Structure formats: C-alpha cells, structure tokens
Amino acid sequence: RKLLWENFVLDAVRNDVAFGHLFFWALRAVESSPQAKVAVQTDAKRRMHEVQGTICSKAQLKLTLRHLKEANDAVRKGDRVPEVPKSDPNKVSPLVDVCERLIYIGTEIVKVRNQQERLGVLQALIDQEIN
Asked: Cα–Cα distance between 31 and 14 in angstroms, integer?
C-alpha cells in the first residue's frame, strides 16, 4: 500500500494536476463517508491533505507566474504594474473551490421543500457563491 501510494499516486499527482484533482475527490469521499471506519477516514484525510498540498502549490505557482507575466507586460508597455491580490492559503485550486461551493449550494437547496422557494434559494446561492 505504501509503495503504491509513494510510487504511483504521489508521482501521478505531482506530474498531472488533473490526476491530483481526481485523487483529491476520491479521498475526500472516503474521508467524509459515514460507512468508512474511523481509521480509514483518518488515513484518507491525511492523504487528501498531502494531495491538496501538491495541488495547492502547483496552483499558487501557476498564479504567481501569471501575475509576473502581467507585471512584465505592464512594465514593457509603460503602464502601472497591476496590484497582486492576496491569495487564500486554504484554497486548493480554482476547480476545487468551485466544486466545494457547488456542494454547499446542493446541500442547502435540498433543505427547502417548496419548489418555488427552492428556485429562489438556488438563484440567491448561485449569485452569492459563484457569481
């Protein structure tokens, strides 16, 4: 198990962010599964955080390179260097962030029984969480 994790999974995650996202969601499902034993949930959570760290560092590197390119382009044009927004260290990647917000929206709208009211709640949550 350890050999497979270190030589296949982590290697795949380090080399391909898409694989990283797949493993992240698989491990998150196990970590939050009420059917999984506590020891399995704990192991999945530890491994999920390891994958998360790899995805996060790659996303931050990509974002930093984009900001550097924008700054260099601005300097070349003689424009003002754009301000770099602060990044949230708790965000894994833009894809995971959007999926997390969609999960939250889904969890909230199933609580509303009335169909018309549910539609209004859905629209409000999409405006709040996505737009």
From this structure: 21
